[in-house]
């Protein structure tokens, strides 16, 4: 079974959605992207998150958005 990209656990950051295996909130990535920063900028600031996790998260978000409007 594939490891989830995002996890929510009340014992980690009070249940805030984070990248699995880290304490980095997903919202932080979204804030970076909204501010015009790149994925590389984000990875530089949060090396515990892998590029693969970011790509998988964005692909899942895209798939859910497309499914919601279809």
UniProtKB/TrEMBL annotation:
InterPro entries in alphabetical order: DUF433, Homeodomain-like_sf, WH-like_DNA-bd_sf
One Pfam match: DUF433
Top-level taxon of the source organism: Bacteria
Designated name of the protein: DUF433 domain-containing protein
